[in-house]
Amino acid sequence: MATPLSPASPAPAPAAPAPLLDVRDLHVEFRTRDGVARAVNGVDYSVAAGETLAVLGESGSGKSVTAQAIMGILEAPPGRVTRGEILFQGRDLLKLTEEERRKVRGAGLAMIFQDALSALNPVLSVGDQLGEMFVVHRGMSRKDARARAVELMDRVRIPAARERAGQYPHQFSGGMRQRIMIAMAMALEPALIIADEPTTALDVTVQAQVMDLLAELKGELDMGLILITHDLGVVADVADTIAVMYAGRIVEKAPVHELYRAPAHPYTRGLLASIPRLDHKGRDLYAIKGLPPSLLRVPPGCAFHPRCPMARDVCRTEVPPLARVTYEGFAGERRSACHFWKECLRG
Ligand SMILES: Nc1ncnc2c1ncn2[C@@H]1O[C@H](COP(=O)(O)OP(=O)(O)O)[C@@H](O)[C@H]1O
Ligand code: SF4
Ligand SMILES: [Mg+2]
Fold it and tell me: Which NCBIfam families match (predicted)?
């Protein structure tokens, strides 16, 4: 007797490309005289080539410490990674030697800091600083390196690049200096750039220009970009995904449009409500009450409970897991660490 054909098994889904960067269950603490600051408490995030992940949160939430751990520039001691993995192009950076990490920093990973003036060398002309990258990492002659430096300055749209290459960092405006930082970070065409509050020190118009430039270059080079900011208003147009951090944890992670449309965490809701909007001119801005906790004394249960307008008893004792958020019409990856994300989502 012929056996009935079993229904065709579905073709295996093509394996998703391995992310460029995959941070898993990262924990970082600082042992200080006042006690142990748990700055990062189990952060998971990943970034693919061509993707922009914005990491958002008030000051002191562990955004920069996470970035420093990825770059291998954590101040240690007092800082220490106590748990987790940082997979970059499939290799766990935490298992590499200092020498190997330096190589990764040269060509694979680069960082842009908030304060260009202190990140750049004050006694070297910007042309020499940019050129140095090509001399050291690419073995170019000084003359060729200088030509490449001028090209890069052009590319980040510094007017009269050839003439200005001989000038020193303090002779540039804040916005132009930040462009030089971007040029430095891009020089070796890294696979991933981490920009830590790259526009915080700039005025609003210049902020937008620098952000546009970053987005444009990222697109051209198909890099991954992690954009750290405390300002949700800045990232709306450039981010693909947003991870919101609070007290060393990710409390919400979502595609940018979904997050704006309907936040699934009361903290995100508060951050969104405090963005100045042109159409709300004259109205008082909402501010989340209170301050973020000291990471020396994170509240029990949900760390946000002392400030949360939706908090209930369970919030004071049970840590909410970073649960999968699903709803009709959305099949992507989205998460919230709130016991009541469904209610929050409904608004
Ligand atoms: N060098 C350090 N020494 C001691 N504690 C630190 C140090 N750097 C960071 N921390 C701790 O980590 C917390 C998070 O810092 P950070 O990641 O810089 O916050 P942000 O989200 O503003 O970037 C700080 O509030 C502090 O408790
Ligand atoms: S778990 Fe409770 S306290 Fe925390 S965000 Fe949700 S409702 Fe607020
Ligand atoms: Mg910071």
Answer: oligo_HPY
